[in-house]
């Protein structure tokens, strides 16, 4: 039995703080609060900002669960993180703490930046960690890492603050230990699920859906327009996001059925043998089709832990050998051969057919289906009650070299039509990403592809309000006849003086500018005058190639205008970012 199972605290205060925009970290902190009560602690759950400059006085141990957004803190942690600068060495002597970082490796340059910073600053101020910082990767084995770290946390906390108990131990029932997480039980009751509740999504009706791009043109890559009716009482502000819970396509579900020889119409009840962050929120009977369509991620790249499970269940040497090689490869090799290639557990099961993984264990390996985020592209002022989206279809040759890869949510949103109902939720964008209300502040918008979405909303806001303040909209696309999204609407806003459109066309360059950064460089005089007038810059879309290139273009302008060195230009841009005058809302493509 673990220490967690045999020791209990007696009312020790436990402070659980979260830095969370979209609720993941807040949810984990709340779950820890519930567990904490069971373990005999007296937990308090709050945002990090509520404890700004209050750590020294906090009672009992401290646990922090925090995320980063483009390397910056969440909105409920901004003051707290800023105040860490002023923590004097020794000011937190005596404080015991633990940090669980939640991040996503897709943001490689700033992966786990905020939790790492918090951890370092607390240590520097004399606080002592109870255990090593946890790093959960939303694109990796998220549930597994959170479960393991949580178990280690309770072990450490109870070791330190608990007392041995003679009575009934807290923890899993002895007979459940050593067995897998799930067991399937046949039943014929009706079908329902609790996933929507978990993600906070609710039904929204599709009012309009159509293609924005000329897909008959050889350059045409589908981008779909969707207009949704927001449910009663749901509002948004321009540039907010919509989290959309997708469904898996039939063909993908069928692949699972074929591999495991499943009858998709079989109705089952899924019973989790123990609590797990990664467990599917299914407590009602449902068909296997519904389970595989609406509850699990089937295409995520396999993690090394998952491949190790596949290897364990493979006896046949010619197949066990390559799986074991993947499972024991150094992380860089694994990343190259499995992660980057995008090989899913299902892909591997199809490749290594001798693997005898039971279906229940397969389910256990799969993450819970995640909502995807889309920037709302409409103006909250012009169209309250409705939210528009522009969704780019992710479809490309599979990186593994076999077949075509289709993104789950972008494909799902291709299939919906007017009258359909989807599950979604409005989420606020970072406050710093909102345009200044004072329209005399000049603004530069930079985007490519569907990165244009929140800027369409901003331009429509300005058009609706009759504003003529300086608003330059750099927008990268392929060709003027193919994917100049919402062209007529932008032309009307431009004619009214609400915006000055600055498109660039990769396949039809004008004055040598193929990409936004090239046009920004060409128009450096005007761009510089906006910056000198205290202007603000907003960047949205491709975080992999466009955002770094745009940063470089702005630094080049600064160097050119002031004669500054590379280092000075980096510091200048960092200061602009720090003061909220250069704001990115970018995503890994
Ligand atoms: C804040 C925010 C706002 C956003 N706004 C918009 C928006 O307005 N419009 C929009 O279209 N998108 C937007 N996105 C992106 C969107 O959320 C989704 O990421 C995108 O639609 C892809 O989701 P999917 O479910 O189709 O793909 P998924 O099924 O999630 O697949 C993506 C995964 O597949 C991998 N992959 C990609 N290509 C391949 C390949 N060829 N072979 C193998 N693996 C591959 C990727 O590495 C990635 O891990 C936004 C993202 C964020 C974070
Ligand atoms: C717009 C955006 C930017 C992000 N930037 C980072 C980042 O810089 N570093 C990182 O580790 N994770 C980054 N992430 C991943 C988040 O940290 C991750 O999604 C986390 O689960 C969010 O936690 P929350 O739901 O509690 O806000 C980003 C996510 C989004 C949507």
TrEMBL record:
Annotated InterPro entries: CysJ-like_FAD-binding, FAD-bd_FR_type, Flavdoxin-like, Flavodoxin/NO_synth, Flavoprot_Pyr_Nucl_cyt_Rdtase, Flavoprotein-like_sf, FNR_nucleotide-bd, NADPH_Cyt_P450_Rdtase_alpha
Cofactors (names): FMN; FAD
Domain FAD-binding FR-type: 199-436
Pfam families for this protein: FAD_binding_1, Flavodoxin_1, NAD_binding_1
One of the record's GO cellular component terms: cytosol
Record-listed E.C. numbers: 1.6.2.4
MF terms (GO), sorted A to Z: flavin adenine dinucleotide binding; FMN binding; NADPH-hemoprotein reductase activity
Domain of life, per lineage: Bacteria
Classification via PANTHER family: NADPH--CYTOCHROME P450 REDUCTASE, NITRIC OXIDE SYNTHASE-RELATED
Protein name: NADPH--hemoprotein reductase
